[in-house]
Amino acid sequence: KMTQKIIKLTVRDIRFPTSLELHGSDAMHTDPDYSVAYVVIETDQGMRGYGLTFTVGRGTEIVVCAVEALSALVVGKSLEEIVSDFRGFYRLLSSDGQMRWIGPEKGVIQLATAAVLNSVWDLWARMEGKPLWKLLVDMEPRKLISCIDFRYITDALTEQEALEILEKAEAGKQQRVDQMLKEGYPAYTTSCAWLGYSDQLLKQLCTDALSEGWTKFKVKVGADLEDDIRRCSLIRQMIGPNNTLMIDANQRWDVGEAITWVTKLAEYKPLWIEEPTCPDDILGHAAISKALAPLGIGVASGEQCHNRVMFKQFLQAEALQFIQIDSCRMGSVNENLAVLLMAHKFKVPVCPHAGGVGLCELVQHLILFDYISVSASLDDRMCEFVDHLHEHFISPVVIKNAHYMPPKDPGYSCEMLESSVQRYQYPQGEVWKQFKKQRLTKVCVPIIKY
Ligand SMILES: C[C@H](O)[C@@H](O)CC(=O)C(=O)O
Ligand SMILES: [Mg+2]
User: Fold this and answer.
1) Among 86, 244, 355, 363, who pairs with 216 as Cys (CB 3.0-4.6 Å)?
2) Percent of the chain with pLDDT over 90
3) Does the predicted TM-score (pTM) go above 0.90?
């Protein structure tokens, strides 16, 4: 099976008009249309692998172009060739002598790398007949290590150290698999409190979430302090003192501003402030972490952290207390493995970013692997959940009692319903043609203040 050659790669621009109802809105992304560059690879024997990367609307066409530019590096290869030297293949994609100039390993080209490699991992897991998390959990530590590009991170984590972490976690692995199959992985919800939601909607969604068993909630902040105080106070009252609250500013502030603003929200006892400032400002995050530590508030970031080298520095600078990996921002599973192992060495809990479209479906595999094969701990750990657009996936996430239940279907859970792909393809899908016809260029209610 593994000798099958990949003979075709297609990529499509799929957009969902989520901005109409301000789903996903935050202080910086006021009108996101949750979207994906959706990749399908096909072998000479008709097997398919599915992959995607997430975007928020305009610009997806640029990611599609970048995927097309990478496709020549994949088409013609057999899965055997790829996975027998996955590190080499990762490098081929991320360090192509000409294309690396438009990165390297960041921005659009890294999103495209993620989409392509996600489809390769999906194909591999399908060929093995396992969900991706199980493929990873069953893999020999040495084989896992051979998928990681350690270039630029050996000052923080050597191959030998990574191997030792994985070998040490072999003990008790089966028990943790059984536990996950029974209980699932703990999750928190961001669905109640997008920035553009009214107080009434927030209350309704929070009431529903509490009745469904959610105990951890994230609220968007950062556009207007008075609004933040009102919303945080409302949600804290609703969830009570013992449930967990997190706040997310999506990069809105300068460093000093972040410290003063969050100090004013401290009485609502947030566990973390997420993305307080520019996602590239490592020393800024370190300063914020230091200033907020006496208030018991940690700093979380990662959804726009573009590669392992950035995460390495955040860890070295003690700039984050929660690491938020993302399945579609960095170089797929390969690069996420490096970050999970570094986070473990630096003793920083991983709480993945999910939501968007497809991000929950994908990242659940990585966090299950983290618990079973790396961290062996659930302390201070939880995976984000957002309740949008799961109906477009062939194997949507299963949430039970606020926990992710491990996926059972083979693959990386990336495959979308072909009917959804056709309907939402931009701009030719029926949904977008309809908007054009009605000249309804998606008018958003401007309730977000600047
Ligand atoms: C634009 C996205 O919805 C973003 O707000 C998501 C996010 O920050 C999160 O889920 O965390
Ligand atoms: Mg966020």
Assistant:
1) 244
2) 96
3) yes
Q: Looking at domain 167-405, what is its CATH homologous superfamily?
A: Enolase-like C-terminal domain (3.20.20.120)
Q: Is the pLDDT of residue 140 over 50?
A: yes
* pLDDT over threshold 50, residue 175: yes
Token pair 């893999």 is at which residue? 139
Dihedral, 168, 169, 173, 177 alpha carbons, nearest 10: -170
CA pair distance 247, 228, nearest whole angstrom: 10
Question: SS3 of 61, please?
Answer: helix
Question: Per-residue pLDDT for 447 more than 60?
Answer: no
Report the sign of the C-alpha dihedral through residues 167, 169, 171, 174, in that order: negative
Answer whether 161's CB lies under 8 Å from 345's CB.
yes
Q: How far is the CA of 263 from the centre of ligand 2 (A)?
A: 19
Return the best residue to mutate from 250, 387, 389 for the ligand 1 pocket (most ligand atoms within 8 A of CB).
250
Q: Is the CB of 35 under 6 A from ligand 1?
A: no
More confidently predicted of 438 and 204 = 204
Can you give the pLDDT at residue 117?
Answer: 98
Return the domain boundaries, the chain: 6-151, 167-405
pLDDT given for residue 436 in this prediction = 83
Any residues with CB less than 8 A from the CB of 280 and at least 6 apart, and which?
310
CATH of domain 6-151: 3.30.390.10
Q: Is the ipTM of this complex over 0.90?
A: yes
Whether residue 248 has pLDDT greater than 80: yes
CA proximity to 23, closest of 355, 413, 248? 355
CA distance 145 to 71: 25
